[in-house]
Amino acid sequence: MCIFHGRASRSILFVWILMLPFLFTLSVKCRSVKEQSEMKSSQTAFNNGDFVKAIELAGIVINKVNIQSSTKLKGLEVIAYSQTSLGKFDEAERTIQDALKIVNEPASVVVSNQKAGIYFCASWLKRSQRQFPEAIDFSRKALSVAPKDLKIQGEYYLNIGRILFSLGFDVSAIIWLEKAEKILSREKSADAQLLEIYRYLSHTWYSKANTGAALNYSEKLVKLAEKTEYKFKYRQALFESGNHLSAVRQKAKAFDCSKEVWNSPKEIKIHCIAVPF
After folding, report:
1. Which pTM does this prediction carry?
2. Domain carrying residue 57
3. Is the pLDDT assigned to residue 184 strictly greater than 60?
């Protein structure tokens, strides 16, 4: 009887030893799925214009032990964009520096589109700070990561167009933005970039007193934004379209565009109106 129990115990122990690698892998996968779910919640908060909540949720993820570098980078990117949107430029600068340390590690295994994304994020921060040479430099770094990648090319043209608009070079901005539109209108999963292109083309044409072209792009912006998960951009598009319509004395349409914004939560409404170009 004792011999039987001894053999049974050894058999159970052997089975457990064989299962350990599987259980470890399963544990890692479960943790990764949870982190991805938490990161998705942070991105959703950002897309809805709740930048404070996006920072909070992303911060929880990136402060976990042994987090994958790709997940941490995504969290840092969301935090930096949120901090920039809130005008917290010093904090965004520190967040970007943390991200760049990961990107520039000699043994870094970060994929090219994520690496380019961090450079574009840094460019957006520098443009918001009106440090335009640095903004252009980071955009060029992003393009150099994968110069033949059409989506990265399109976002590079978009970034340069936004910078030129901020500098007051409206005609040059239109040229670069239209180049971006030509590329990204054919790319899948480029809705976020297309929304920015339509937004800036609307504003550049409005600056040139071409209200017809401005309203055309405003309409394209609102229609596309309504179909996407970018609810903040949709409300922002409605607000800005309302301003353009009001300027050409289409008061009824302007009111219809703006009323959804005014029904938004206070903190989201403020960000919608105040987010810099």
Report:
1. 0.80
2. 41-129
3. yes
User: Which tens digits make up the pLDDT trace of 205-215?
Assistant: 999 989 889 99
Q: Hey, what amino acid is at 81?
A: Y
Question: Are residue 112 and residue 205 in the same domain, yes or no?
Answer: no
> Taking a C-beta distance cutoff of 8 angstroms, is the pair 8, 15 a contact?
no
Rounded distance, CA 188 to CA 110, Å?
A: 22
Question: Do 53 and 45 meet the contact criterion of CB atoms below 8 Å apart?
Answer: yes
| Residues belonging to the chain | 277
In a domain, 185, yes or no: yes
Backbone angles phi, psi at 202, to 5 degrees: -60, -45
Token pair belonging to 141: 């770094």
Q: How many domains in the chain? A: 2
Inter-residue contact 160 to 139 (CB < 8 Å): yes
Q: Report the run of H or E that residue 22 belongs to, with start and end.
A: helix 2-47
> CATH number, domain at 125?
1.25.40
d(CA 22, CA 26): 6
How many Cα neighbours within 13 Å face the side chain of 207? 17
